[in-house]
Amino acid sequence: MPYLLNLVYLVVLLLASPWLVYEGLRKGKYRAGLAAKFLGQVPVRQGQRRCLWLHAVSVGEVNLLAPLLAEMRRRRPDWECVISATSMAGLTLAKKKYPDCLVFACPLDFSWATRRAMRRIRPDCLVLAELELWPNLIRAAHEAAARVAVVNGRLSEHSFRGYRRVRLLARWLMGRLDLIAAQNEEYAERFRALGARTSAIHVTGSMKFDGAQTDRTNPTTVDLRRVAAFADDDVVFLAGSTQHPEESRALAAFEKLRGRWPRLRLVLVPRHPERFEEVAALLAASGVAWRRRSRLAAEGANSVARVLLVDTVGELGAWWGTADIAFVGGSLHKRGGQNMIEPAAYGTAVSFGPNTRNFRDIVALLLAARAAVVVQNGDDLTAFVERCLSDRTYAAGLGQRASALVASQLGATRRTIDLIEQLLDPAAAAEPRGRHAA
């Protein structure tokens, strides 16, 4: 099977190569960590401590690891955690966010790359965030006698249907997962239906709730308010993790309402760094006074600009703490939504579009608690912001219910680490493993 997969990957890579070269030259994507990706030339881990290799795809999964790492360090300071990421944005953020960890680009799923990476890292457990199942990577872990765990496991209906089309491969993959810490029972049942062992599946809840900051006076948020020169009577409308054309929808709402509410501020945080210049051009063409986050320190606080473009990576979690009114992007079109827990945890009045399939269970909880509002289009978004501005009791009620809901969902990280500790218990580690099991 590994050789067949290698052939499939090479064909796909060959077919996609013109686009990959174009994106690499135009945006600088895919160029970082080429030796690690294609050859498995990751750093060599030193020492003999027990090791968890934590793999995150991109920015969202990298942020998800924060509570798990913090709790793991508290409980098991003698264990070592190393981190890999797939996207360049995720890799950059991981290096910035976890400077005391070994961070590297995850090898592509070629058998030679994954095997070499396993030999160099020597993990006791490969921990995959949410659902990042690569056959050769998992096979390499088994050949190296490392356990394989999925944490914050999520299996959407779309992914489930995709795996069902390749039943034999899906059953092989699922059968080699030693632990699946699923977010809810619906996802757990889908894992079972694809062939995962019942004994490996546990419902732990979503770790994304545990990672959410709830204190608006945390040092990072306080510092952001200071550098952005937000006054106490400003009302901050933040549109975060946005995709095209959501920035223009948020800007239209701001332009329509700022005349009646002169203390309204707009903060735009695009999801992808490569779109920063596109959004900057949109703002420049609009005629509104605006500033870039990256230049705030150099320019100082003396500015009449009421619009801010956050053109930096990894700060959105803290920026949500400055917001009174929130729109969570990636939801007005086909993206499937982004994490709405962070603004909810701060007690912000939260809105998002109708396309939130990636966070379906979280959205259901928020809507059942009357803790968020779905906006169908730009006009709905403007109406939502207007209502929050004109009826502060309404906005405060949304925020209070949202923060209470987040508080009620805490504990998934603790339950997940309990399971990882059990998985790596000496008695469990003594069970037959290695090449004969693969």
Explained architecture:
With 438 residues, this protein is α/β, with parallel strands linked by helices. The chain has 2 domains: 32-205 and 411-437, 3-Deoxy-D-manno-octulosonic-acid transferase, N-terminal domain (Rossmann fold, 3-Layer(aba) Sandwich); 219-408, Glycogen Phosphorylase B (Rossmann fold), CATH 3.40.50.2000. It is 48% helix and 15% strand. The strands form 2 sheets. Strands 3-2-1-4-5-6-7 form a 7-stranded parallel beta sheet, with helices on both faces. It has a 7-stranded parallel beta sheet with strand order 10-11-9-8-12-13-14. Helix 6 (135-143) links the parallel strand 4 and strand 5 (147-153). The protein is globular. The chain starts with a helix and ends in a 9-residue tail after the last helix.
Provide a concise account of the structure shown.
The chain has helices spanning 2-27, 34-39, 59-75, 88-97, 111-121, 135-143, 157-164, 167-175, 185-193, 207-210, 219-227, 246-257, 276-286, 296-299, 316-319, 341-345, 360-368, 378-390, 392-408, 412-423, 426-429, and strands spanning 51-56, 80-85, 102-105, 125-129, 147-153, 179-182, 201-203, 235-242, 264-270, 290-292, 307-309, 325-328, 349-352, 373-374.
